[in-house]
Design brief:
CATH architecture: Beta Barrel
CATH topology: Thrombin, subunit H
Structural class: mainly beta
Largest sheet: 6 strands, antiparallel, barrel
CATH class: Mainly Beta
Number of strands: 6
Shape: globular
Distance between the termini: 34 Å
Strand content: 35-45%
Order of helices and strands: EEHEEEE
Number of domains: 1
Helix content: under 10%
Strand order of the largest sheet: 1-2-3-6-5-4
Number of helices: 1
Amino acid sequence: MAGDCEITLIAVNDPAEGETNGHGFYKPPQEGSESKTTVFCKKKSVGSSEFYRAMQAGYKAEMKIDVFKEEYDGQGFAEIGEPPRRFKVLRTFEDPNKQDVIELTLGDLSTRNDEETDEYPYSEDG
């Protein structure tokens, strides 16, 4: 796989037990609550059937990318582009014909406002 771009994979660290406000809700993530890893990737387009399946679930599948398996550790979010734009990892796929690569389908965070599924839709800027 020849990487044609860079992507920053983002893992959001869960708040520690007891980190709730007076009403029992989790406090907003603090600075340093994310783990970021920048890796090379290969961009691919989203197929029409996958695009429409994501739309039925309330997401907009924006792109697919390939990254090396050893560089992906289950991160739920990614940033790509300049200026960086944040995406949710909607799906992963391991192609048996490409044993060292995993495919990530990325969705735009702004299309679905469902607290149950978008655990951390914020960017560093706000």
